[in-house]
């Protein structure tokens, strides 16, 4: 199935506007945040206009409607991931989800499968976003555990050659990205998950760059926890998803305490509600959750397989066209296998920030810098890159404009 990008773009009101003195908006920064279709904007607005009340609190009609909409969105997320609804926890974003897990491990009682101490190791990778590195780095410091990591090969692939020395019977946690936000590399996690489970470790997957762009089924994947952010999947900001196996969620200690997450409270003690409510203290971000539900339904209607194939074709085209420009170096895999719609590159003689500003003057939005993955860019010897990240509303004309813009920048900067 070929995507009708012209039709899709009509669903996104932001593409009706112009920028930089009347120029067409060419948005190639969806890896940072995606644009929102009208149905998402409407869903969030309608909640505030017609149903605004605190979900799970109150017996009046508005509270009932708010609760029904909130829980219907949970069902939508569960269906999108191939999960059960009681396994879906709503957070503010993937960053909060990952911190939730790290702090919950800190709170685990001795003897629990989550208890972690100086005798244990935590394994991540060198290609992690800061959000899936720093929480584990800091948990290692608090607990005395040792942090280890998979390296990255020169061509931007995960180096699994030393998996047996990294994941051992001392390993408690393996936290890994499914797709790099810098390299576009899609990691086949099957071997890592199998190895981690063989030693009793818990596997946590950062799926921020994968879930919005390809079909991800948590049962097939086989991890223990998975998280993504709504704003990267056409949804609102301020909402994220933590999926976890139900038995693990119920064993895991809470992260935040307050209303709605309790079973019973006295002046000296409290007991917790079952998952997922145990992790949703306070009045939830209801309108954003409803908006996320609308976003995932929109993606399902377009078709995740169709979106993935569309991005694969665009990525292949962009790699080919950029490769024709003298002085360009692609940071990440050059082959098309297991590669998502993210292309980072450098241009000889032009700093990425200067290139980004020049492209912006043409109406082309890209990301520049280390992309919240400082250890990775340092390891690759490229502390900053220009990154184009693609989505369902991009087409060949967007990529042609980017390529032409890079060529113009080379002339402008005398390269």
Description:
The chain has about 425 residues and is of the alpha/beta class. It folds into two domains: about 5-30 and about 305-410, Aspartate Aminotransferase, domain 1 (Alpha-Beta Complex); about 40-300, Type I PLP-dependent aspartate aminotransferase-like (Major domain) (Aspartate Aminotransferase, domain 2), CATH 3.40.640. It is built from 14 helices and 18 strands. The strands form five sheets. The chain has an eight-stranded mixed sheet, sandwiched between helices. Strand 9, helix 8 and strand 10 (about 225-230) form a beta-alpha-beta unit. Helix 3 packs across helix 10, helix 4 (about 95-105) runs parallel beside helix 5 and helix 11 runs parallel beside helix 14. It is globular and about 70 Å long. The two termini are about 40 Å apart.
Briefly say what this structure is.
With 415 residues, the chain is an alpha/beta fold. Helices cover 38% and strands 18% of the residues. It contains 14 helices and 18 strands.
């Amino acid at each position: 199935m070929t995507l009708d990008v012209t039709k899709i773009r009509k669903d996104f009101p932001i593409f009706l506007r112009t920028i930089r003195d009347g120029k067409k908006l060419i948005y190639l920064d969806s890896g940072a945040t995606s644009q929102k279709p009208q149905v998402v904007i409407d869903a969030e607005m309608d909640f505030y206009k017609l149903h605004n009340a605190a979900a799970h609190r109150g017996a009046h009609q508005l509270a009932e409607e708010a609760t029904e909409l909130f829980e219907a969105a949970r069902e939508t997320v569960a269906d999108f991931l191939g999960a059960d609804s009681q396994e879906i926890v709503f957070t503010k974003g993937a960053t909060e989800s990952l911190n939730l897990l790290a702090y919950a491990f800190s709170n685990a009682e001795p003897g629990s499968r989550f208890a972690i101490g100086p005798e244990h190791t935590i394994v991540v990778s060198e290609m992690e976003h800061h959000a899936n590195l720093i929480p584990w780095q800091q948990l290692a410091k608090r607990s005395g555990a040792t942090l280890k990591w998979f390296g990255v090969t020169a061509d931007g692939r995960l180096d699994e050659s030393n998996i047996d020395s990294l994941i051992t019977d001392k390993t408690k946690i393996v936290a890994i990205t499914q797709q790099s936000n810098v390299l576009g590399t899609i990691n086949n996690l099957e071997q890592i998950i199998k190895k981690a489970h063989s030693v009793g470790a818990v596997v946590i997957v950062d799926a921020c760059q994968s879930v919005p762009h390809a079909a991800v089924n948590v049962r097939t994947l086989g991890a223990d926890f998975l998280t993504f952010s709504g704003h990267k999947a056409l949804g609102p900001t301020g909402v994220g998803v933590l999926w976890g196996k139900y038995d693990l969620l119920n064993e895991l200690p809470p992260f935040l305490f307050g209303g709605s997450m309790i079973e019973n409270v006295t002046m000296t003690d409290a007991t917790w509600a079952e998952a997922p409510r145990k992790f949703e203290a306070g009045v939830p971000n209801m309108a954003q959750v409803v908006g996320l539900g609308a976003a995932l339904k929109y993606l399902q209607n377009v078709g995740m397989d169709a979106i993935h194939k569309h991005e694969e074709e665009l990525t292949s085209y962009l790699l080919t066209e950029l490769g024709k420009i003298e002085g360009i170096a692609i940071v990440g895999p050059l082959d098309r296998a297991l590669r998502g719609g993210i292309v980072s590159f450098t241009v000889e003689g032009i700093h990425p920030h200067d290139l980004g500003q020049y492209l912006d003057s043409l109406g082309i939005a890209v990301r520049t810098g280390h992309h919240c993955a400082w250890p990775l860019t340092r390891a690759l010897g490229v502390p900053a890159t220009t990154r184009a990240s693609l989505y369902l509303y991009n087409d060949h004309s967007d990529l042609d404009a980017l390529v032409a813009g890079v060529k113009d920048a080379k002339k402008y900067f005398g390269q």
